[in-house]
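pasting for the record
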Amino acid sequence: MDGKMLNNRSSLLSLLETRRSAKPRELVGPGPTAAEMERILTIAARTPDHGKLLPWRFVTVADDQRDAFEKVLGEALADEDPSATPAHHEKEHDFAHYAGQLVVLISAPIPDHKIPVWEQQLSCGAAGMNMLLGAHALGYVAGWVTGWRAYSPKVNAAFCGPGERIAGFIFIGQASRELEGRDRAPLASVRRPWGPPRI
């Protein structure tokens, strides 16, 4: 194996080992350009997909659509919590206007197919992970969040078709501060050797 290939592999491993999530509220702009977003979403789509069903979609929310997104969140919040205070609605204003690019990841499984829905949902999760890696590879940071909004019928109706659901809101931008490494579970706590069942 030549030195160039070893360097490429080393760089790839370093990329995988250093990815960090960011809190969307702490992101700053600018986010990825249109060409960079095209590349990130193309990378996201290169995910395991049993049956080639494409059981996921990427819905992008443009900067000039953030006010409309805020309106959807505000109406949904009023449905979820009629006693919501102005402070609660201000939080939705902030969420709708977080910096960077916003992609709403949609799980869109095909029901009654020979490929189980569970496998299709796993493919959607893998697409989301690929999106985070693609953003990181281009020098951005991303935050994937759900919360009550991802489970709100009104918010889902604004983004999803029948049988679909929001898998998360992914914001992609610049880190406003150095990201801290999170404590990770020791590998020994999540790995175990298989033991054949006793008959």
